[in-house]
Amino acid sequence: MWTLFCRWWLFFFLLGLFPFTSLANDTFMELKLGGWSKHFERQEAHLPSFNEVHQGIGLEYNSNDGLRENQYWFVGASYLKDSYRMDAYGIAAGWKRRWAYRDVFIDMGVFTGVQSRSQAISKQAKDRSYYFSDIDRVLIPVVGTQLSLGYQGVTLNLALIPVVYLVDDHPKLQRPLLFLQFGIHLSFLEQMMD
Question: What is the dihedral of CA 100, 105, 110, 114, to 10 degrees?
Fold first, then answer.
């Protein structure tokens, strides 16, 4: 209970650092909520089953300062329950391009960052089969592509993320996962509350 309180307190403290109403039209904050995934990696029988409902929350700052019209750079931080139901924390930065028609828009982009999350550890038995040993916390690089579909200040965000595991302390690329999350621009949320 105490860790849940600390997480929410930190989130709202960081939220309070940004003056949302004074952000320029080409700059906005987006609150990310939820998180659902589809793992394309084959589930090994000796490992725990994947969690695909992630209970995530995040905050993303977007700006086109220094870029052409309809291009944005962004930075963000997030918390969620990872694929093994453990706490995961991440930070990321990226670039996206927006195509808009009236209140409807599509964003496509790329991102990179790091994530502190859990990883299942397998050990090899004498008969050369593998068995589940433990779950360990790792700091892993993240890179991916994203597609966002939006109307006014509400978005549906899809990301295709290659999965990286540490094998003998070396990163090993696995099949990707598809990640879905909802977003809402905080200025849009403020307008709804007025």
Answer: 140
- DSSP codes of every residue in 8-51: HHHHHHHHHTS-GGG--TTEEEEEEEEEEEEE-S---TTSPPPP
Give the predicted TM-score (pTM) of the model: 0.77
The H-assigned helical ranges of the chain are: 2-16, 186-193
- Among 9-18, 46-55, 90-99, 158-167, the least confident range: 9-18
The long-range contacts involving 91-98, CB below 8 angstroms and separated by at least 24 positions, are: 92/142, 94/146, 95/67, 95/71, 96/71, 96/72, 96/146, 96/148, 97/70, 97/71, 97/72, 98/70, 98/71, 98/72
Identify any residues that bridge with 107 across adjacent strands, giving them in sequence order. 98, 148
Token pair listed for 181: 């999350």
Chain CA centroid to CA 153, Å: 19
